[in-house]
């Protein structure tokens, strides 16, 4: 097992290959292959029910791969659950914390399970997250509960941080607290973060890499930089009835607006502009689309392959 750890590719912390999972007749994951590299923030996006939590549970070793494989730190997380889980910090969407404990009691309780627990760092997070250690878990607001869960996930300085919908139901201020903590943990100590969210603006703000899931299938998986660089939002006007977007490869989505169109184009910006102008369209503006605009276009399948 030790040799297996040493032989892992240092740059890849999590790898799934052709992973499949069904719950009865429902396909939760369909041929999912991802790689999460060391020191990166990996954003897993998709609407509710897309398969994000199911994928995270496979990484945690809670599910056995029905088909395909899962590797975490070069190990099978089901077979070597103790070795894998000791190196992971996990914040669940449901924030499953013992409600009868105080925050202080929770910290002492969790510290007993992790030899690497850093009490000074834990106290630092208490102050940073403005948490009262004497307060009972049951008395915490949703934002305080999320920050407490994040404190517990971070305090043993895990090599891999798994966050399942960390900002679910939180106000914008609490959301930014969590996001800044994630970014800081990666930047300062080279940790690896995988977090899921249906809030694409938040994923776009902090992620290095993005995987888009829809009905259990990957619709896009690349670095955020690469995704943004190959998609362009073209605003154009035309008086021509000859403009046929079907003849323009790379057009993904078209929105009519007044006497013109807003076109999401995938490919070389110059080539797209030339093709539209050749058909009588006049480009009046070119912008970088948001991750949300790109995701919606692919999910709705209003594009030409």
Which features would summarize this protein structure in a list?
single chain; 305 residues; alpha/beta; Rossmann fold; Alpha-Beta Plaits; 2 domains; four-stranded antiparallel beta sheet; 13 strands; disordered N terminus
Supply the CATH class of the largest domain.
Alpha Beta
Assign the CATH architecture of the largest domain: 3-Layer(aba) Sandwich
Average pLDDT for all residues: 86
How many helical elements? 11
Q: Could you describe the 3D structure shown?
A:
The radius of gyration is 22 Å and the shape is elongated. Helices cover about 35% and strands about 30% of the residues. The chain has two domains: about 1-215, 3-Layer(aba) Sandwich (Rossmann fold), CATH 3.40.50.300; about 230-300, Alpha-Beta Plaits (2-Layer Sandwich). The chain has a six-stranded mixed beta sheet with strand order 5-6-7-3-8-9, with helices on both faces. It has helices spanning about 1-5, 50-60, 80-85, 105-110, 120-130, 140-155, 170-190, 200-205, 225-230, 270-280, 290-300, and strands spanning about 10-25, 25-35, 40-45, 65-70, 90, 160-165, 190-195, 210-215, 215-225, 230-235, 250-255, 260-265, 280-285. The protein has about 300 residues and is an alpha/beta fold. Mean pLDDT is about 85; it is low at about 1-10.
């Amino acid at each position: 097992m030790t040799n297996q750890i040493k032989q892992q590719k240092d740059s890849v912390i999590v790898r799934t290959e052709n992973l499949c999972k069904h719950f009865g007749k429902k396909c939760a994951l369909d041929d999912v292959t991802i790689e999460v590299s060391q020191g990166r923030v990996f954003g897993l996006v998709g609407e509710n029910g897309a398969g994000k939590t199911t994928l995270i549970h496979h990484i945690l070793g809670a599910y056995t791969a029905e088909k395909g494989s899962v590797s975490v730190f070069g190990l099978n997380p089901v077979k070597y659950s103790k070795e894998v889980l000791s190196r992971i910090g996990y914040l669940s969407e449901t924030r499953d914390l013992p409600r009868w404990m105080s925050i202080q009691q929770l910290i002492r309780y969790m510290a007993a399970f992790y030899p690497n627990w850093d009490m000074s760092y834990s106290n630092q997070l208490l102050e940073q997250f403005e948490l009262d250690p004497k307060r009972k878990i049951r008395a915490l607001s949703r934002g305080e509960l999320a920050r407490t869960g994040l404190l517990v996930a971070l305090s043993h300085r895990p090599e891999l941080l798994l966050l399942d919908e960390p900002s679910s139901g939180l106000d914008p201020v609490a959301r930014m607290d969590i996001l800044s903590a994630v970014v800081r943990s990666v930047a300062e100590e080279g940790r690896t973060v995988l977090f899921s969210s249906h809030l694409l603006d938040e994923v776009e703000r902090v992620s290095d890499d993005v995987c888009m899931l829809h009905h259990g299938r990957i619709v896009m998986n690349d670095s955020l930089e690469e995704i943004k660089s190959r998609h362009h939002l073209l605003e154009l006007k035309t008086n021509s009835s000859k403009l046929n977007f079907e003849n323009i490869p790379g057009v993904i989505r078209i929105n009519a607006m007044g006497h013109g169109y807003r076109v999401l184009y995938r490919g070389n910006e110059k080539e797209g502009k030339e093709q539209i102008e050749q058909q009588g369209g006049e480009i009046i503006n070119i912008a970088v689309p948001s991750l949300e605009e790109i995701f919606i276009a692919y999910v709705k399948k209003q594009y030409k392959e």
